[in-house]
Amino acid sequence: MLTDIWFDAQKAPRCLALSVRLPMLVPLDQPIEVDIDTARLLRSPHRDTPIDCAWLDIPIPIRLFWTAAQVDVPCTTTPTDHLGFLIGSLAPSSVTMTPRTRRVSVVTAFVPVGVFNPVDEQLRRRDVLGPLDVVVWAIADQIRATRLSGHALRDISVEVLPEQSIPYTYADVSEGKLIWTGQWGTYHHEGPRADSVGYHEAPLSKADQDEIRRRFADLRHGTTSAVMADLLMRAHIALDAGLPEMAILGYAIACESWITNLALSLKWENSEIEAIAAAKLGLINSGPHTLLRKCDELGGGSWDDDKEGHIRAWLRDVAGERNRIVHRGERATMDQADRAREAAGQLIELLKRRIVSSSKFPRTRTLFVGERSVDEYGSKKRKEQLRVAISGTAANLSNEEDFRAWREKVLDLTYRRADRSV
């Protein structure tokens, strides 16, 4: 039983505990702490949602505990059963519902809260940010971090949680400990009846789960490399789900985000003032290929000197297909989406190779590449030096914060200019 206090009891004199069943199995079984603060809230889908102050006082630290549970998922009858019934060759009694057993993740969350009455309050109200929203938001980021490790897991939200009765209880703080009241409530969540069919076995090894926790921290912090990787993985998930148009749009967004942020980072590292950078980049009126040419300072040859054909493939299979979908309303095939995946991957690897090879932009390197890219593209003489340079966590976080603050100033200035010109 959890009795230790990890939060400020002056701000939150009680702790809410609830368990949520997910529509899939996530390969995790460790506890994780999540800090919900104002900065993350402003970067989240809930940034414009008022906070339910009867429950929550932001910032708050919450805890998640991952487990797995067996559930029976009703199966429909087989097509043969239906066909036989309709043509009269099978008696109606032979058409049965056969449940199947599968494992899904159950996440128990502990949320520091203010004074509330568990009988009268709702865990979620649609017009405010409540405890269930905060819990699922934290779970969703954990799933995104797991996806970055190569597990094909879909995004999750409160709306896609399966229909269930969510049990909850609470503890009071007394003499520095949590004293559980033994009073229970149930919140009925209206959701889809069927669970998702896609899931992975669990759990992973402790080392792999620790790596996922590091990725989770990167995503919560909004580090450039994690955000870029997440965009690419979203496109992969759309492709795996058989949604070629969404996959191609996802690959286009991932590539253009890579190029734009790289172009910005090069200007940031050169210490150019915001107005000059905004004017030179022309973010509003420039296409992605034009922006790519603004990355020439990396070296490695002209982007138009495309001996390997990666730029042409990207322009044809990603940018071109994206334009046909958006501007002409065309449908895409899975073959087209497969080609877009290959072209997007080749372009991003080309960018990484030039970043690693360049000696001019060490701070940009910490934002966009990791040890795998150094091993892949670094020269034998510089590999160890490059590994050391990108391994300083404190320095890298400082770079991230500096770049993000500078980038937001540039983008604000850029879009204000664009608004005035309309």
Estimated helix fraction:
40-55%
In what order do the strands lie side by side in the largest sheet? Answer: 2-3-4-1-5-6
Mean of pLDDT: 81
Order of helices and strands: EEHEHEHEEHHHHHHHHHHH
- Major sheet size, sense and barrel closure: 6 strands, antiparallel
Structural class: alpha+beta
What is the terminal separation in angstroms?
A: 60 Å
> Which spans of ≥5 residues are poorly predicted at pLDDT below 50?
none
Q: Hey, roughly how much beta strand do the residues contain?
A: 15-25%
Give the overall shape, derived from the CA principal axes. Answer: globular
Please count the helical segments. Answer: 14
Radius of gyration: 25 Å
Number of strands: 6
